[in-house]
Design goal:
Low-confidence stretches: none
Shape: rod-shaped
Main location: other
Keywords: Archaeal flagellum, Cell projection, Cilium, Flagellum
Mean pLDDT: 82
Structural class: mainly alpha
Subcellular location: Archaeal flagellum
Strand content: under 5%
Distance between the termini: 151 Å
Number of domains: 2
Protein name: Flagellin FlaC
Radius of gyration: 51 Å
Number of strands: 0
InterPro entries: FlaC_arc, Flagella_assembly_related
Largest sheet: none
């Protein structure tokens, strides 16, 4: 029985309907169109997936950019502080080197500006001392009840 069934399957060949050339070409064209559509849909899906990935990455990139901006600002502030510190150190170095420099006299003789600067410093010091003396004298006079306003008025009227 099984043998007859199998032999009947193999012995009977199905008749295939005959297809004309024009129908074959139409079928081929239709299959090609379907293939093209399927390929286009796959490409569109790939592009959409990539677009979705890019859209997901944009917020992360924005956060990274903001973080970098903050870090740049911090570095900029650190550099400004360092520049200020370096300027302060350079000024301190200049002051110390002018006060402690064993070649100070030699430099002053060579550079007329430094000599003039030294003379101006000495004059400022003497003026400071005179001013301090005048303040003390005025305090003493005010303590004795002397009318300072009239004295100032008299002095200014003489000039």
């Amino acid at each position: 029985m099984a043998l007859e069934f199998l032999s009947s399957l193999f012995s009977k060949k199905k008749k295939q309907p005959s297809v004309s050339e024009s129908e074959t070409e139409e079928l081929i064209d239709e299959l090609e169109e379907r293939m093209e559509r399927r390929e286009e849909e796959e490409m569109i899906n790939q592009v959409m997936e990539r677009l979705s990935e890019v859209e997901n990455e944009v917020p992360r990139i924005k956060i990274s950019i903001d973080t970098l901006k903050k870090q740049f600002q911090e570095v900029r502030e650190d550099i400004e502080r360092l520049e200020k510190t370096i300027k302060d150190i350079m000024m301190l170095y200049e002051v110390i080197s002018q006060e402690i420099n064993p070649f100070k006299e030699q430099l002053m003789q060579e550079n007329p500006l430094s000599q003039e600067l030294h003379e101006v410093k000495q004059e400022i010091e003497s003026l400071k001392m005179e001013l301090a003396q005048i303040k003390n004298d005025i305090r003493v006079l005010a303590g004795y009840g002397v009318d300072i306003d009239s004295i100032i008025y008299d002095v200014l009227s003489e000039v």
